[in-house]
Fold:
Amino acid sequence: MLSWFLSGIRLPLVLATAALAADALFFANPYDMRILTLCGIYALLVLGFQFVFGHAGAVSLAQATFFGIGGYITGIVATHFGAGFLVTFPLSIAGPVLLAVVVGVPVLKLEEHYFSLATLGIGLVVLLLAIQWSDITGGTNGLPGIPSIDLAGLVLSDRRSVLYFVWGLVIVGCLISYQVTRGLYGQAFHLMREDRVAASALGLNIAHLRFAAFILSAAYGGAAGALMAHVIHVVSPENLDLALMVTCLTMTVIGGRTRIAGAILGAILIVHLREWFRVLENYYMIAYGLAALSVLILAPYGLVGAIERLRAMLFGRSPGPKPPSVSEQAPQAAPAGHYDHILAAENVTLAFGGVRALDGVSFTLRDGEIVGLIGPNGSGKTTLLNVISGLYVCDQGQVTFRGRDITGAPAHLISRRGIARTFQHIHLVDDLSALDNIALARAGIDGAGLLKAISTVGHDRLLERARRIAMAAAERLGITSVVMEPCGGLPYGTRRRVEVARAIATGPALVLLDEPAAGLNEQEQLDLAERIKTFAADGITVVVVEHNLVFLAALAERLICLDRGKVIAAGLPDAVRRDPAVIEAYLGLGASEPIPIAAGAP
Amino acid sequence: MITFLQLVINGLALGAAYALVALGFVFIVNATGAVNFAHGDLVMAGGYAAVGLGSLAQIPAVYFLPLVAVIMFVLGVALALLAYFPLINRPPSTVFISTLLCGIILQNAFVVLFGPQAHAAPPLLKSGVAHFGEIEISVQAIGTMVVAAILIASQYLLFTRTQIGRRLRATAEDRQMAQAVGIPAFALIAATFGLGTALAGIAGALLANQFFVYPTGGIPLSVYAYIAVVIGGWGSIAGAVIGAMIISLFQVVVSAYVSYAAATGLLYVTLLLIFVVRPQGIFGERVQRRA
Structure:
């Protein structure tokens, strides 16, 4: 129990929470209570915004819109129909969620800057509606006379009860946020934010994750807006506008974009900063802007992130969870039915502009064989892997995996059907441990989802099982001694092995390894080759892209050689090595010696 | 018919002003890949500079326009030092937020320096209206169109025909690679912010005669510049000009038939529909993301 308090920044957080609670309970005058209530409302708004901006990594400018819509629904339903909180509050959450569902599908497909502008555009349309549709919304003046919170007859009329009620809801909001982010599902967001390519290659549906984050942010925004309408008894276009959006963004950036404590700290700090700087009169917004800009520059992870780093600097990193003591082999994705070849590529063609990166590539793979894919630089090896794993869509041709056509299927579905891969350039999350990087292989396949995450009680069994499977994969690659280290600090060769382990942890039928031996010394290469052979012994088909023929000679049963997007030779390693076309591609016209597999070999 | 033609002329005049606003925005996009959300506020800053200089000496703006450009160049370099360079290795959204904050600082600096009311700057040459048959057009609008045409052409030539332009594009594409081949990337980026801001300033000085400057006047301009660049295709100069024309088409021509608010709403709805149909912009090219 004591060690729980002492790890991370829990101790200062607990103390700060106690101080805040004591202030609210015993010392606050009515004015302070009003300010603290506003802090709670903004904290809810920011907690929601963290899902889309922090966890999904998308700069949405629609958070104030969700807030405003929630407020207007509460205002309209309460003043026009006299409904109580138990009716208006769920409606105020449902409205923004509905909007998010409708606009989410097209808007979330957009890249970075386009997404921001689209969400801004939605906000501006809603703002115009609120101003123009004055019969219902009260136009620029807004809707006054919104009643206090009425819980089926129990009216919260004094500031103290409103304060407690709002902060009660903030606690509920924190709990939901904690549930969503603490387990394997939360780590899936982490991977998606850092590296979309790796996330989809591991079977994560990025569109689903972003959609879930957007919906959650809308729900929180609506709830906060509804509370604001009750607390200040009026809702006006100011509840929807860009200034509020900027406030929300500033609070999130200053507090910390992925930490629950950050949302609360950001909200409390900014609300109070505005109060304190008011003495500066006209200069206060300038001071406020400069303060926010300084935090943005000096504390990339917000103030909470800065405190965490300070603690790590002063007291060292707190020991993370112990590695799981038992390991579990990854179950392999079952085939759909009978097939002749595990993978068959037929006339695969892909052009980038005028360059034919792949030009009518056809080949087949058998169950459990190890095939080397060779060819000079730029011959299309990695492009071919990208087409097979679904990162690129080919212009022509067909790819069949275990008897099913997977041409043009999205990467995450191909991964879930049993094709795993590694990358030429390492795609790992630096600040997660090696074990958790490997464990992320299970997030997509085991179906970590929003509702499952929220309803998890106690330990996240998905995460625990994923870590056991990750441990087994780490054992197969011989990296168990470093699994608890953050990946960013590991040596290059070890990180490559972490990637291979992650591919194996998906339980694949086919693994595509893109230059796994790059940067390894000879001893490490031999060791890796032996480990890869054990995959094949377990029935996993392996494709290895390599330049290093020494490494392949010890490993591959068959070679396929690409040159300028075409298969120029395929067969037993020795035959391919002596093939005139291969020699020409590698060594130039006129050479007649087979490509040496090692210095001094014939 | 004459009214419609008059509307189109008015639309073109406003479009030229918006194109000028978008031009500085797209300049910074092209050289750094960053969205400068303080851009509209920098346009206002240029307008205020013209107001301030104009109140000192009662002369047409054409004489002190170069001075406005120089002042704004310095402001742009300062913006780069404050809001871009410290964040150069962070995700692009960080620069979006830092410039947004700089915009807030600028807006409130305007209140402190010039008060909350609107100001007008002196005209470029003279005030008054020129008549072409039954069509009339203000001298300021003609001046704006001429200046816009000159600056658009120069920027296009700069990026496509000169070594500096190629270096700027190389820097935006991959800064480290550009540095590795000997391009002074940091100096170029600072100069880019300077020039982009100078363009914003000239736009502001021209706009400040007809449309006034006021502290929050820059916010819609940032949004328009952003929309123009997105409609036109990210980083395309010609696209940004067409995007600016489309915006003014809605604000002048469409709003003559429905209300101004409805025309603005239709503009945003059109933008969203463009996103649904063509997520890469009207003139943008769809490219496969390199894995």
In short: The longest helix of chain B spans residues 2-32.
